[in-house]
Every structure is written in structure tokens, then in C-alpha cells.
Specification:
This protein is α/β, with parallel strands linked by helices and 256 residues long. It contains nine helices and 14 strands. A six-stranded mixed β-sheet has the order 1-2-3-4-5-6, with helices on one face. The protein has a six-stranded mixed β-sheet with strand order 7-8-9-10-13-14. A two-stranded antiparallel sheet has the order 11-12. Strand 7 and strand 8 form a beta hairpin.
């Protein structure tokens, strides 16, 4: 099966949209729609026509471009069924039970609530891709606006269980700030130190820090490492369940 052409589009202050183009069928999809003008310009520059929008959750910085893009291209809009009334222009609501595909490539829907109650993640198993929206970030995770810490821990754990070489595309460029927090809670992690150096170099050069991978996140992202003895010792939570360590990390990050 042909490999997708993938374009990472910075939008707004720090959002990302991802364009997927299948060279065989000519179909194009966008993951989230932060800003219609930026997405249209990228499509026009490549002579691509938008066929599908896959929306991870209802927040405006992920949905603001839907109406204009749908109106211009007639694209279908797929997103979480649980947030159907909060996503403008939704044409198909999905759950984990939904059979979904794009250009003949299967898409597995993961329900990943916490940031919002209906948040979904799109996993393309045959292509080794996962689009995590605002659930799992590079070196971080999303704020818990509508769910609770245990719910969010279950969601990031679901993503972490994917194959290690799966490439992660998240919804924001937050890696540098996340890296600084990670160093504060697990300074002794050699893999993290090396990664922070890479992140700082990339941002200095104006380069994106995603995609990342499942294996890299499991080695360096503190929100996927509540079992770390270093983190537990620093937080004074040696005997706590993983989700409580995760909850404390999220609480500290909210104040950082």
C-alpha cells in the first residue's frame, strides 16, 4: 500500500493541523481544523482537494475552520459521537466500535476522554500513525478540563499501549515547555537529558518537534512514567497507584 504524503501545518499561536494525502486515490484528509485560511493555502499550493476532516474534540482551536472548509470543498466531517452537538458541521459521529477508513487505510478510533469527555484519537495501524489531539503531547499530556485524573491516565495508557514505532502527531507545539517541566521531576533520566538537548536545538532552528514515537515518549515523557522510582521519590508517592502519581504530576504542571 502506498505511503501517505504528510504535511504538518502550524496554525494559530501553537496549534497543528496534519494533512494526509493518498497519492493513489488522490484523496486528502485533515486532522483537526484550527484555521481555514492556512489549510486552504497548503492545499492549493499542492493542488490537493480536501475530502475528509477528522476532528479529535470540540474545542474551538480544533474546529474553527470546519464551516469554511466544509463549505468550500464539500468535505465530510468525522468526530466524536459524544460531542456531536458541540462540533459544527459534523457529518459522522464515531466511537471505538466504528469501522472507519481513509483511502482504503483502516482507522481505529480510540476513545480518550479527560481533556474533554468525548475526545477521540485516530490510529492508523497499517501506517504506524496516531493522531492524539490534546490527550497526549510530546513530553506531556493535555489539561484535564472535563474528565478526572484517573480517566485521563486510562486514556494516555491506551495510547502508550500502541506499537513502539508508531509516530505520534499531537495538536500543539508544547514540547519545549513540557521538556522543562520533565527535567524538574526526573532530572536523572539520561534519555530525557539527551532529548531536551534535541528539542532545544530544533526550536532554536524554528523546527517542529513532532512527530514523536510511542517508544520515545515512554522513555522520556513523565506522564507515561509514573512507575519511575525517581519520579515517585521526588513526589513522595512511593506506594501510590500509577494514576495518583499521574494526577500529582498533572497538578504540578498546571502550576508550572
Amino acid at each position: 500500500m502506498a505511503t501517505f504524503e504528510i504535511v504538518l501545518l502550524p496554525c494559530l499561536a501553537d496549534n497543528y493541523c496534519v494533512l494526509l494525502h493518498d497519492p493513489v486515490s488522490g484523496e486528502t484528509a485533515a486532522i483537526d481544523a484550527p484555521q481555514a485560511a492556512t489549510i486552504k493555502a497548503a492545499l492549493d499550493a499542492r493542488n490537493w482537494r480536501l475530502n475528509h476532516l477528522f476532528i479529535t474534540h470540540h474545542h474551538t482551536d480544533h474546529t474553527a475552520g470546519i464551516a469554511e472548509l466544509k463549505g468550500h470543498y464539500g468535505a465530510s466531517v468525522t468526530g466524536p459521537e459524544a460531542e456531536a452537538e458541540r462540533i459544527p458541521g459534523l457529518t459522522r459521529g464515531v466511537t471505538e466500535a466504528t469501522q472507519l477508513e481513509f483511502a482504503g487505510h483502516p482507522i481505529r478510533v480510540l476513545e480518550t476522554p479527560g481533556h474533554t469527555l468525548g475526545h477521540v484519537t485516530f490510529h492508523l495501524p497499517d501506517d504506524g500513525l496516531v493522531f492524539t489531539g490534546d490527550t497526549l503531547f510530546s513530553l506531556g499530556c493535555g489539561r484535564i478540563f472535563e474528565g478526572d485524573p484517573q480517566m485521563m491516565w486510562n486514556s494516555v495508557s491506551k495510547i502508550a499501549a500502541l506499537p513502539g514505532d508508531t509516530r505520534i502527531y499531537c495538536g500543539h507545539e508544547y514540547t519545549l515547555g513540557n521538556a522543562r517541566f520533565a527535567m524538574n521531576v526526573e532530572l536523572e533520566n539520561a534519555a530525557l537529558k539527551a532529548r531536551v538537548a534535541d528539542v532545544e536545538a530544533a526550536r532554536t532552528a524554528g523546527e517542529a518537534t513532532i512527530p514523536t514515537t510511542i517508544d520515545l515518549e515512554k522513555a522520556t515523557n513523565p506522564f507515561l512514567r509514573p512507575g519511575s522510582r525517581m519520579i515517585r521519590a521526588r513526589l513522595g508517592l512511593d506506594g501510590a497507584p500509577d494514576w495518583e502519581v499521574f494526577a500529582r504530576l498533572r497538578q504540578l504542571k498546571n502550576k508550572a
